[in-house]
Structure formats: C-alpha cells, structure tokens
Amino acid sequence: MTLHESKHAGYTDLGRFHQHFVAEAPAARLAIEQAAPLIASVSATQQSAPQPGPRPERSLVPRRKKRRPQRALYEHADMGPVPAEGDCFSRLAELAEPENWAGRRQSRRDGNWVLREYVEWTFERLHRARQVATSADGRHSVFNTGLATVREAAIYGVFTPNPDPDGPPWRLGGWVAETDRVLLDRFPEPPGLASYTDDLADLVYDRRRELTVCPRRLLETKDSLSVLPGPLRSNPYQAGLMLESAVRRAEARVRRSHRAAVACWDPAYERVQLLLPLSLTTPGTVDLALVVSREGETYSGHTVLGLDEAYARARQIARPEEWLTAK
Questions:
Q1: Under 8 Å CB-to-CB from 15, ≥6 apart: which residues?
Q2: How far apart are CA 228 and CA 231, in angstroms?
C-alpha cells in the first residue's frame, strides 16, 4: 500500500507532523469566570433558604430514563433467554475458536458480554446492508457471524420461522459451520462478511497527519473520569497533566509501529476510528485507550475508553493484536 505524499498545513519535507494540544477558548473561559460570582451567590442563597419539606422536582426538561433502543437482531429473531447460563451466545462461544469473551476485567454480568456486543453489532451492520439472506423457499434466514471454528470454518447464524405470532418473524435455529447440510442445501452462495469501510487506509494510522488533542476535554464526562486509574479519578487536574504526557508517548509509539494504533468501530456514528494506547501509571502498562477520528486531513483525539470497552469496539472489526488483548 502506497501512502499519499501530498503536503499540507502541518507537514514538513520529512513527512513529520506537528502534534497540537488545544487549549480552552479564551472567550469561553472568560464567560465562565464572569459567571462564577453569580453562580456562587445563587448557590449560597439556595443553601440558606428554609426547607419546608419535600417538593416536586422542577425541571425545564423532563427527565427520562435512558433505554437502549431495540437492536435489529432482536427485531429479526427470538434469540431465547439473554443472558442466561447456556444461552445461545454460550453455545456460539463453544463452537467458535476460543477467545476470552469476558473482557479484560471479567467483571460484567456474564462471561460472554463481548461476544454478545460483537454479534449484535455485526448483525446490525449486515441488516442495514441487506446482507441477511432468506432461502428460496422462505423457510430459513441466515447471516455470517464473521467468526470461525478451530478448523477455520466460517460460522453462520441460521433462523427458522417463529411460531409465536406476537414475536419477531424468526427464531434462532442454531449456529452452524459452513460445511453444515442445512446451509449447503439452502444457500448455495452464503452471505458474506460485514464490511465497515471501503477504504483500507481507514484501518491504519497515517503518521503524516496532524494529531490534535485537548487533554482537559477528554475528562469532561463522568464516564471518562470513571475509567481513570483510582488515584486520578478525584484529581482531574493531575489527570489532565498525565494525559498530556501519555498522549505524546502514544503518538511516538504509533510512529514507530503503525500496529500500535488499533482500528475500532463506533456504532453511534457508524464509522471506523483508531485506538491509541495511553500509559498513565507505569511506562509498561496501558491504562486507557485514546479514541482518534480522522477529520478531513487531520486526526482528532476526542475521548478515552476503558480497555474493556475499547476491546469490544476493536473486536467488531478484527481480533486485536499488540497491546489491546482480552488478557
């Protein structure tokens, strides 16, 4: 693969780029400083005011409990009890080449949550691309899981009509290898793998591109703070300083080896992103992953993920290598 050699802002004749850490906008900071006394005054007034008793909560915007939308897999088929001991995903894990589907921390509700996420989003991608096939007699539906047995035989999910009129149109018949007679007899040309990009360059970090990161903004949400190593969760200022240093080291690492940048799938925006390893505690320990997106001719680092979530997103595209493993 030949990399494009065009030069633009941030490139030098040697192909090196200039990494930029973006500070907060001066105008925004000034507005915050000017508003601080007023906010403090209102807060003090509220605290000193008498409290007559419980009152109905008032809000300009009604609070709504967040609910994960129904994913296409469950609209398509009844998968049985999810999750449960011996459920359909446990059976798939037994058929597929062994992987640690529990993730790095192994602290989720069950040992196959990474596999469940993988299958759900794989089906989502195939469904939108109209790559979930139906047999000529209309009695079977099938999709390519993207997984394989220990003998490298592709694994497919096969569905049969659902007898429950109140349920989805199909129900899971089972997971089968490509040599299974059910598949061979009804699908002479089984559906292909899910595709996440038409440009293979999206999967590789281009070290000539400028990388822009604002370490403070990486820690603006509770989710990002919660994935920090313990002592840093209560000290965002120190965490920001350490992140700035960690980002510089990660960029140097990915310049030495493009394999250090791991491609991942962002289901919310349906795009390929890259994960860079961040070491905050010791040089030899990767604590977080920096999510990097290509924005035009540059890269933007805009959030951090814990290694469990990072692994699950990366596994959507391929089994990760290098630093991001399930161990």
A1: 5, 207, 208
A2: 8
- Smallest Cα–Cα separation from 119: which of 161, 172, 163? 172
The Cα 173–Cα 157 span in angstroms is 8
Q: List pLDDT tens digits, range 94-112.
A: 999 999 898 876 556 678 8
DSSP-based three-state secondary structure for 199: coil
CA–CA distance, 234 with 98 (Å, rounded to integer): 38
Phi and psi (nearest 5°) for 77?
A: -150, 155
Do 142 and 170 touch, CB atoms closer than 8 A?
no
Element (H, E) at 238: helix 236-256
Q: Are 290 and 301 in contact (CB under 8 A)?
A: yes
Residue 274 exposed, middle or buried by CB count within 10 Å (0-12, 13-18, 19+): buried
- Token pair recorded at residue 212: 């822009």
| H or E segment to which residue 243 belongs | helix 236-256
- Under 8 Å between Cβ of 323 and 308: no
* Segment 149-197, tens digit of pLDDT: 999 999 999 999 999 999 999 999 999 999 999 999 999 999 999 999 9
